[in-house]
Amino acid sequence: MGVPSGELLRGVEPVRPSRRKLQNKYKLFLLALPFLAVTFVFYYLPVSGWIYAFYDFIPGIPLSETPYVGLKWFRTLVANPTQTGEVLRVLKNTVAMSSLGLATSVFPVIFAILLTEIRAGWYRKFVQTLTTIPNFISWILVYALAFSLFSVDNGVVNHILVQLGVVSEEFNFLASSSHVWLTMIAWYWWKSLGWGAILYLAAIAGIDQELYEAAEVDGASRFRKIWHITVPGIIPTFFVLLLLSIGNFVNNGMEQYFAFQNAMNKDAIEVLDLYVYNIAFANNFPFATAVSMLKSVVSVILLFAANTLSKVVRDESII
Amino acid sequence: MIHLRKKLKPGDALFQGIIYVLFGLFTLSCIYPFYYLFINTISSNDLSAAGDIKFYPQQIHFDNYSKVLRISGLSHAALVSVYRTVAGTFLTVGASAFLGYLFTKKEMWGRQIWYRSVVVTMYFSAGLIPWYITMHNLHLTNNYLAYILPTIITPFNIILVKTFVEAIPPSLEESAAMDGAGVLRSFWSIVVPLTTPILATITIFSAVNQWNSFIDTAFLMTDTKYYTLQFLLWRYLNESSSLAALIRSSPDMAASVQNMQTPTSVRMTVTMIVVLPILIVYPFFQRFFVKGIMIGAVKG
């Protein structure tokens, strides 16, 4: 990496005039202050907006002129059966897609292990380079690609399927709600599989080569080497990432679902984040705030649960 | 991971064969969409609208690009996208480098608290509406600053820089301090040159993020002059009326009939224009960010 290790010099406190140190103490803070202010403004200040969940706020009217309604918007979640049904539907989608994501989170591990098994170095490099490209395009672009490949009128996939006689009529992949959970997870992995594997490739590269040589001498087969050396070598990385994703269980993000949503698949694609966006766009600000408040609280609880789990299981904390 | 050259057993050969094919297919699926889009934009619009272009271009022409680029809203949106990418990336990289470096200074007043308060922001967010209301109160709606100010502090970048700087031998900075270099001087002359690999990584992450950003436009900007390419593309994909208007208003320069713009051709061309910068820049930066993420992964 070009930077020599400083281990030898660590812990050897150099002799320095202490007046300089004192000066530095506040000077360094003042230098950091503008950036800390930016952090405060864009990350901490918005939390004050949670207050809107307790008012009958209508955009355009100052908060001071709107009535305080206490927990009205939180009660709406359970008071009105239609509303409760909506929230349950959205929760079902959120849980389903997050669970599918968690269940398939071994994909990049498998990808990385199999990729290191490839003997031709140029082919490994070729695969690794090209499969990371989709990670760098936005979900809007992914949707644009999906649109040109899978649409009914002129999508190439439908044309080929019809010509081969696999289907008799063009299938509307993008507007069907029946497979939307599966197509969403498929697009997700199309976009992020190659990139996700990079971390594991790094972890595998860090495994002591002598272990493999010793196993070779002992006559271990390819699969035994993978199972007894590679897998234990990357399990710590896998667990850290898994626990972090548990903290994000209710945050699926919304860009992907936002890009792919349409009138036909809306019922099955609306996850919490997208739901908040959709009700916010319908100008129901207080209710949207209440839902995202609950979401944040659940996230923090999950994060701490995952952290505790990590402490118990691996004696290591993730935050 | 052992790649000693030796004769393959039949089982191994089969295994190798299978993974070669699997990876080949997945790699193909990752790049074919881009290729498909490209050959369609340079082929006859009639054929591509009918879905007849699949593997190679036919009746090549470049009218789509020259016409789509002449749409006024689109070229302005391209400028906005370029502006936010350049300015946003510049500020983000500068701030990440400087703050990440400052956080390595043990003598800073309250360092641990400040550092944690920045890192913690990776794990919580106030939510869409509180964020929107705050941005509105700060007068960052319909304002170019909304694109570049909020990204300045990106916790992940700061962690990357901090861990990287901590691996630099302290003696380097000590000797500079002996020679009378202050914090700013040693940041500029010692830390920046030594952290170029990680700064390159942050540059590409930040540039890609800026180029791809979309939600902020959807929320904060109502005036068309703030629209970005991504936002326009999304509108063209979803609102057939805006696309029809676009085709009507585009200057029709006596094109031969088979090169008439169709909704499909405009959609595909715009997509290609948005994706091209990434495809062009990607090969040059690929080795940097792979290295960068590996450093981050191994150390972090």
From TrEMBL, chain A:
Gene3D superfamilies for this protein: MetI-like (1.10.3720.10)
Record-linked InterPro entries: MetI-like, MetI-like_sf, UgpAE/MalFG_permease
Keywords: Cell membrane, Membrane, Transmembrane, Transmembrane helix, Transport
Membrane topology: Multi-pass membrane protein
Protein known as: Sugar ABC transporter permease
GO biological process: transmembrane transport
Record-annotated membrane-spanning stretches: 26-45, 95-115, 136-161, 181-205, 226-250, 285-306
Any one GO cellular component localisation term in the record: plasma membrane
Family matches, as PANTHER family: BLL4140 PROTEIN (PTHR43227:SF11)
Chief location bin: membrane
Residues of the ABC transmembrane type-1 domain: 91-306
Localisation: Cell membrane
Similarity comment: Belongs to the binding-protein-dependent transport system permease family.
